[in-house]
TrEMBL record:
Pfam families: Aminotran_3. CDD domains: OAT_like. PANTHER family: ALANINE--GLYOXYLATE AMINOTRANSFERASE 2-LIKE, PTHR45688. Transmembrane segments: none annotated. Its EC number is 2.6.1.44. Its cofactor is pyridoxal 5'-phosphate. InterPro entries: Aminotrans_3, Aminotrans_3_PPA_site, PyrdxlP-dep_Trfase, PyrdxlP-dep_Trfase_major, PyrdxlP-dep_Trfase_small. GO terms for biological process: photorespiration. This is alanine--glyoxylate transaminase.
Length: 487
């Protein structure tokens, strides 16, 4: 057991103790409460090191190369742009549901989900079975021939979308999906100008790099025709949570930065790479209105927030009560299989018939079979509902932790797409980048893997598999609490 020391050694009052104690799991609360009732000082309360919940699975022994050997090969043969989390990179060799295992067999709670990608859980048997079964029959042919896998999945995917969004183009990634969506909008409207949001991330190819609005992710190459509107960030934005005030900037860009007509407006409902920033309420309806009046299309980037992750809705854009003209998606669509999609209306989709549009791997039978299996698992296991219940519980616990530590500036997001922003000064909102890296390493040592994001790299990104449960949530928060207490 490790002793947890608070800033004061006095016996806390009832209200002070309750505020401190409610940040811990029920077992730890019960132990601390018993000691407090007997007049033990808070600084002398013994809190156990958080323990990972029981899970009935043991991976087979790992017999591959060591982490050092793999790292050496990466440095010699892979792009030097690749980087790893943690001071000592983790060698992940096995996964099951919401857990990952390293080369020693140690289990970790995966609260990052492969960057909001693993929605059903690692190696879900239904998804694995669909992949293996299809691979045994036909791994690849071409969409120039008929195959039921692509048609069945397209039908099932269209059924999850509102309005007349029913025509699907399959891609291999979210970047590729956004590239295609932007091209479709330009072709359909005959305009070139696209409006994106500051702090957005839409990919790192030629067109999407222009729409991405963080210098961290932009190379000095030609990027034209994209205007970046003020970000409706409730925490750091100048208008707080007033979405309509931020949306005025979209209209001003149209009036003063374009010919008065635009091709499209593209946005995430919750910015993932940007640090789990949920757009201010009322923003998208107002922004969409201005764009449509200017003849533009509205593109919803659902690469991270789609497929039930927000809990309250299947798609992130639904949280703002809008219906886009084009929806892009990837990541959770295949539970880790390289797969993306663009969904739009029959009228808009018609523009690609002006020339030949083709994608060799878009609609690959193995990938689309996996995608269909993912949709079935989400429904069968009620993963969207679980994301809402567990995500709400987790957010409440994280918010309680904010009352305890000044370093936590903001807790935000919804469902199982949550962010915790760390600052060294709450009033100035000074990013606590070094503290973020330190705590990430500490949590990894305790058995919890989380991501980070935001322009300053000071936001914990919590995007676990949607099978995450309340025990996992307790372990995550207790590990975060424990790590912060030791700083």
């Amino acid at each position: 057991m490790q002793r947890l020391f608070l800033s004061s050694r006095k016996v806390l009052t009832g209200r002070e103790f309750h505020r401190w104690n409610r940040c811990f799991s029920h077992a730890a609360q019960k132990e601390a409460s018993s000691l407090h009732d007997n007049g033990v000082a808070a600084a002398d309360v013994v809190i156990p090191i958080p323990k990972i919940p029981h899970f009935d699975y043991s991976p087979p022994p790992y017999e591959g190369p060591s982490a050092d050997e793999i790292l050496a090969k990466r440095k010699e043969y892979l792009s030097p742009s690749m980087f790893c989390f943690y001071n000592k990179p983790l060698n992940v060799v096995d996964g099951k549901r919401q857990y990952l295992y390293d080369d020693t067999g140690r289990r970790y709670l995966d609260a990052f989900g492969g960057i909001a990608t693993v929605c059903c859980g690692h190696c879900h048997p239904d998804v694995v079975d669909a992949i293996v079964t299809q691979t045994k029959r036909l791994q690849h042919s071409t969409i120039l021939y008929l195959n039921r896998a692509i048609a069945d999945f397209a039908e099932a995917l269209a059924s999850k979308l509102p309005g007349n969004l029913k025509v699907v183009f399959f891609t291999n990634s979210g970047t590729e999906a956004n590239e295609l969506a932007m091209m479709i909008a330009r072709l359909y409207t005959g305009c070139h100008d696209i409006i994106s949001l500051r702090n957005a991330y839409h990919g790192n190819a030629a067109g999407t790099m222009g729409a991405t609005a963080q210098c961290n992710w932009k190379f000095n190459v030609v990027q034209t025709g994209v205007h970046h509107a003020q970000n409706p960030d409730p925490y750091r934005g100048v208008f707080g949570s007033d979405g309509e005030k931020y949306a005025r900037d979209v209209q001003e860009i149209i009036d003063f930065g374009t010919s008065g007509s635009v091709a499209a407006f593209i946005s995430e409902a919750i910015q993932g790479v940007g640090g789990i920033v949920e757009l201010a309420p009322g923003y998208l309806p107002a922004a969409y209105s201005s764009v449509k009046k200017a003849g533009g299309l509205c593109i919803a980037d659902e690469v991270q927030s789609g497929f039930g992750r927000t809990g309250s809705h299947f798609w992130g854009f639904e949280t703002q009560g809008v219906v886009p003209d084009i929806v892009t998606m990837a990541k959770g669509i295949g539970n880790g299989i390289p797969l993306g999609a663009v969904v739009t209306t029959p009228e808009i989709a018609e523009v690609l018939t002006r020339r030949s549009y083709f994608n060799t791997f878009g609609g690959n039978p193995v990938c689309t079979a996996a995608g269909l299996a993912v949709l079935k698992v989400i429904e069968k296991e009620k993963l969207q509902e679980n994301a809402f219940v567990v995500g709400s519980y987790l957010k409440d616990r994280l918010t309680a932790l904010k009352d305890k530590y000044e370093v936590i500036g903001d807790v935000r997001g919804r469902g199982l797409m949550l962010g915790v922003e760390l600052v060294t000064d709450r009033h100035l909102k000074t990013p606590a980048k070094a503290e973020t890296l330190h705590i990430m390493d500490q949590m990894k040592d305790l058995g919890v893997l989380i991501g980070k994001g935001g322009y300053h790299g000071n936001v914990f990104r919590i995007t676990p598999p949607l099978c995450f449960n309340k025990e996992d949530a307790d372990f995550l928060v207790d590990a975060l609490d424990y790590s912060m207490a030791k700083m």
